[in-house]
Amino acid sequence: xxxxxxxxxxxxxxxxxxxxxxxxxxxxxxxxxxxxxxxxxxxxxxxxxxxxxxxxxxxxxxxxxxxxxxxxxxxxxxxxxxxxxxxxxxxxxxxxxxxxxxxxxxxxxxxxxxxxxxxxxxxxxxxxxxxxxxxxxxxxxxxxxxxxxxxxxxxxxxxxxxxxxxxxxxxxxxxxxxxxxxxxxxxxxxxxxxxxxxxxxxxxxxxxxxxxxxxxxxxxxxxxxxxxxxxxxxxxxxxxx
Length: 241
Hints:
Shape: globular
CATH architecture: 3-Layer(aba) Sandwich
Number of strands: 8
Order of helices and strands: EEEHEHHEHEHEHEH
Keywords: Hydrolase
Oligomer: single chain
GO molecular function: hydrolase activity
Largest sheet: 8 strands, mixed
Protein name: Alpha/beta hydrolase
Pfam family, one: Esterase
Structural class: alpha/beta
């Protein structure tokens, strides 16, 4: 996809939109945990869709409730609701002013990496603005996550999960729970949404291995639903990193 990249400030946050040059309307993807400068490279092998990245502080904006720090670091402050309100109340309207986007939730994707992936899944339990949700190496080890998922039906119609095979074997003990938490999340979501509605992609390596390729796979998974096109040649099962 070839498009025009626009960066702008919105309530003190740097935002970026990459939109195709056609008339649209296009499906759109809000990407959590991606720098604006990465959008053009990410879009090269994608069909026409609108991509948006919004500046965030992961420890604050992506955490749904407060939790202790991993080590002697900043605590997780749990202000995801404020960030979700910003996305739905300000970012989506600003996006609609800058690009010809579809307004139907089934043509919107909310995707995130690491804490951003946790946020994307959590957000689907709070609103129905995004019909598609992707959690890439999501921090599903987060304290209380599985309890939330068990108690809260997610409103997305299709969900994508991915994880590196080595992620559950390294890092602090809390983070090593990510493998079992991801499997449990997949099983619970599959039972609720039904066959074919939830995808789990395993990749080689740890949390920081092949991140651009993992973003590509998630967007390729979403592409048929965002564009109504046949885009199977880069499907999630095409192979690991």
